[in-house]
Amino acid sequence: MGAFDVPPLPDARSLPGTARAGALPAAEIVVALAVFLAACVSILVTRVPGAVTLFWPVNGIAASLLIRLPKVRWVSASAGILLAVFLASVLVAHRPWTVALLFDALNGAEIALMVIAFRLAWLFPYPDITINQAIAMTAWAGIAIPGMVALGAGPLIQALLGIPVLDGMRLWWSSHAAGACLVGPPIVLFSVARWRNLVDRRHRLANALMLLGILAGTWLLIRYLRFPFVGIGCLLLIGAFRFEGFGAALAGLITGLLVMTLWLLGIRPIGLGSAPAAGTLLDLPVVALLAAVMPPIAVGIGMAARRSTLRALRMSERRFRESIAHSPIGMLIADLSGTWTYTNVALQRMLGFTAEELRALPPGGPSSEEEWEASKPRWQRLLRGESDFYEVDRRFRHKDGHWVWTHVAVSLLRNEDGSPEHLLAQIESLEARRLAEAALAEERERLRVTVNSISDAVVTLDADMRIDFINEPAQRLLGLDAHAARQRRIDEVIHLTDPRTSRSVVSLATLSAVHGKVMRRDNPCILHRPDGLTSYVIDSASPLLDGAGRVTGVVLVLRDATADVERTRELRQRATYDPLTGLANRSEFQHRLQDAWRKARDRGQSAALLAIDLDRFKAVNDTAGHAAGDAVLRQVAEVCRQHVRSSDTVARLGGDEFAIILYNCTGQYLEAVGHKILRALNPLEIGWEGATYSVGASIGAATVTGGMSGESDWLEAADKACYRAKSDGRGQLRFAPGAEQAGADLATPSGGP
């Protein structure tokens, strides 16, 4: 991977200190406090009066934290960092606030350049960066960016502190480069797992002893050698092999702090006796220090990558061997002569041999000499690189003597230089496949017979809603044979409409395919067959799912509900209509009467009720018999129907009692209908078996009035009016109180008794 190759970034939400909207800015506060403390310590320990701080890790800390915590609120974090540096400069360095603001601006610019470079321009997979990426970060954040800012800091230092421009630039660069290179790598490379690995009790003592050895060696080298930094670098290199990247960076930071502490205490290499004795870092060779500290970090990163690669390689090899050993199909590895050097358990069981017995067999294994010779040209083409693999069906002899047919796939394993090393073969027994195919064919036949045996129509569809299969009941229901229906779209074959609205209904097959759920329709629909015939059906649809849960088709089931619909219709007819006359029966009449009463009361819709009672009907029944009486009742029903609107209700209440509900009825209409029916029924003559019989009728009329409390009062008013008509001599029309005004209470006889 190159220096600027960018693998996918880890999920930043898992990093500590990420900010969420409305949450307390804990991460920003922590960054600002860290910057403030680092600035105070650096100023107190390494600042030379009248000059700049000689070790400035503040910018490296701030930039590294912002790079590692990309979800912090950058506005508040930047403001906190700048405020922390400003306060440290004013309170600890005792600079005027104007001077502090100028230095604050330079530090802010340096931090911003670092963050822009490695959070926006180049996105590395922190903390798992490569050596090239670490070198790029060191070159830019540790060396180049502090150098670019030093170009502007030199004139400012000269103007404010009186230090020559070049010296100011050198002091700025060395202090900032040392800070960034020492504190930046531990922050960038930090992870909880790496920290736990360092302090794990299995490694804790060895790591501590290694670090103590490095620090002790550093002290000795500083104390007794003229050029100690080469030795310090060697010690850190030795430690890097154990610590890896993060540990090497941490050890480098601690070692660098130790070197600066010794320098401040006046402990210098031999030959620097003319330098200031103590309390300053002016003569600290920063370049030599960084040259000793930085290479071990790269070595540690490389060591971590190498160990990770070795672990992955060992894991891959173990998985390869385990996958071969536990594969359910036969696997073998053969040398280039064809001798079976390794066989897995599945192959041993397939052929009945042990691993040792198979290794002892001649090249080609337990096969006939002719078949082995016939296969040689194929694997020789593999060796010459003319093909990558080949497949062939061939047989092997079982240990008990019978032949086992197999499907063999052979490929070539090569070394790193591309030269052939082994032959790898997968051997699958065709006996098991043939048994499975036979069992599958048997299961398909059983399923076909089962589906054709059920009475419901079954249609299977593919993912494009085209018909794959229809059973015999479906062929009869749809009027199509299987060949004509196959591969046709379901909407071309099945068209369903709502019997109440005559509109097309939604396709359950489509809904089931979209939602991946079973869909059922409770109410029957009308099926329009391609030949024009119709029938009632109730349908349901179930999705066919593959192993990943994707819809691969739909099973549509149609149940012929024509007989059920007709039966329900017949039962409803019997429950609501009089079987003799075809009129509404008493139950249906009561329901419609209640509805008419409610509309008259709540909406002001006018309605009238006629109660009709036949006169001399019993005489006909007793003289001519019930058959003649039934004929009279049917004739009366027909007369009533002929003289009212189709929207009105004519009902037989039982025996010779009839009733009529007139909706939206005016007084004139009530009077006209009442007299028409009265004249038609008085008299009503019927011939029966050579004799003529005559009946009449008395009629009572009632409208809804304010004094009525319910439909029963309305019916009672009509009955009383009818009774009064009978009492006044039969064959009369009488109006109940309230209806008299509407009908003028006309009592003119319309026929004799």
Q: What does it look like?
A:
With 753 residues, this protein is an alpha+beta fold. The chain has 5 domains: 1-190; 193-319, no CATH class; 326-434, PAS domain (Beta-Lactamase); 454-566, Beta-Lactamase, CATH 3.30.450.20; 578-743, Alpha-Beta Plaits. It is 54% helix and 16% strand. It contains 25 helices and 18 strands. The strands form 3 sheets. Strands 6, 7, 8, 9, 10, 11 and 12 form a 7-stranded antiparallel β-sheet that branches. A hairpin with a 2-residue loop joins strand 14 and strand 15. Helix 3 packs antiparallel against helix 4. The longest helix is centred in the middle third of the chain and has 40 residues, at 286-325. The radius of gyration is 52 Å and the shape is elongated. The model is unreliable at 1-22 and 741-753 (pLDDT under 50).
Strand content: 15-25%
Whole-number tally of structural domains:
5
Helix content: 40-55%
Quickly give the structural class: alpha+beta
Low-confidence stretches: 1-22, 741-753
Number of strands: 18
What would you call the shape?
A: elongated
The separation of the N and C termini measures 118 Å
State the major sheet.
Answer: 7 strands, antiparallel
Q: What is the rounded Rg? A: 52 Å
Number of separate helices? 25
Average pLDDT over all residues: 84
